[in-house]
Amino acid sequence: MKINQTGVSGINPYQKQLNKLHDPKKAIEAPTDKLEISSAAKGMQEVSKMTKERMEKIASLKQQVAKGEYQPQPEKIAEGIVKFYKK
């Protein structure tokens, strides 16, 4: 008895996978990850920088008060209060 080849016996089922791996065009067109930082997040980063500076200033003032070296300047304090409430 003789068996003739059918239409699917000559197809390599793994050939499509190999073609995908070795196709340079597909590798270039592959989507890439993208990260965008919102303006609100950028603002929060700026606030954290100001917080660090403020904490350093507070620590410096605490040291001056503890040593008795702190001399308040009433004119600058008054200017700051007026500026705050004019907003």
UniProtKB/TrEMBL annotation:
Domain spans labelled Anti-sigma-28 factor FlgM C-terminal: 33-82
Domain of life according to the entry: Bacteria
Extent of Polar residues compositional bias: 1-18
GO BP, sorted A to Z: bacterial-type flagellum organization; negative regulation of DNA-templated transcription
Region (Disordered): 1-24
Alphabetized InterPro entries for the sequence: Anti-sigma-28_factor_FlgM_sf, FlgM, FlgM_C
One protein family per Pfam: FlgM
Entry keywords, A to Z: Bacterial flagellum biogenesis, Cell projection, Cilium, Flagellum, Repressor, Transcription, Transcription regulation
Keyword Transcription regulation: yes
NCBIfam families assigned to the protein according to its UniProt record, in alphabetical order: FlgM_jcvi
Similarity comment: Belongs to the FlgM family.
Protein name: Negative regulator of flagellin synthesis
Organism of derivation: Bacillus aerolatus
